[in-house]
Amino acid sequence: xxxxxxxPQSYCTGVKRxxxxxxxxxxxxxxxxxxxxxxxLIHNDIIMNKYKDMxxxxxxxxxxxxxxxxxxxxxxxxxAHGTDDKIIEYAKNKGLNVIDATCPFVKIIHNRIKSYxxxxxxxxxxxxxxxxxxxxxxxxxxxxxxxSDINDIEKLNISxxxxxxxxxxxxxxxxxxxxxxxxxxxxxxxxxxxKICDATTKRQEAVINANFDxxxxxxxxxxxxxxxxxxxxxxxxxxxxxxxxxxxxxxxxTKYNDIAITSGASTPYYLVLEIYNYLIK
Length: 281
Ligand code: SF4
What we know:
Layout (H helix, E strand, L loop, with lengths): L1 E4 L7 H15 L7 E4 L6 H9 L3 E3 L4 H6 L5 E4 L6 H9 L3 E4 L3 H15 L3 E5 L5 H7 L6 E3 L15 E5 L5 H14 L4 E3 L4 H12 L4 E5 L5 H13 L1 E5 L2 H4 L9 E6 L5 H12 L1
Parallel strand pairs: 1-12, 2-3, 2-4, 4-5, 6-7, 6-8, 8-9, 10-11, 10-12
Bound molecules: iron/sulfur cluster.
């Protein structure tokens, strides 16, 4: 059985940054001053549970504002996927120690949308329903048109000639190309701004270009970029999507000769290496 690790692996820059902000806060933590994560800092429960065991409190991302209202001291760290600015401002105004761990690539999208809104553009945002990153973007303005797949385009009814379209950072490059193409056909003057990040694009390209009879995707079930790797892998051949080695052990792999391993941008490398070492034994 041939086993190969596709590159890149390990945390992307946004995840590394978010985790180092959290580690720094833990190192500087004063007694009796709690640390709250507003939503899961990154989408990987194995890592989030380790921080919970260290005393970090994770606040439900769907109920942020209500939960923050109840907090009167401590450090609040906002998740890498981005958050409604108004909630961050509210926490700051309350006098809480606020750390915004939003990935800089997500921030660029927020800023660009705000600039185009000021210029009276209609905004079409392509994202996944209920994903933290989409929710953070949609909180910028109720005027943003949200679509999650190509079939949503027919429902758009925009008369403005000025239209700007951008997207979530972790979409499928294959799906997005089709969506942007269809938008361009409907609105010829539209400005298209593909913001799938480098970490996502490179991982997807590696899967598209690799040969395998089985793709193993290591990632959390809430990780958008891991899901996309699995979907792309399935278009080519068999694929399985697992959190860790324990889950892999439930599968019979004897029929496979050429296994490729990829992982999401929030998957720690040690989980991937455990799987690789188990398979090459
Ligand atoms: S996947 Fe991309 S956008 Fe998301 S945290 Fe990583 S670098 Fe940032």
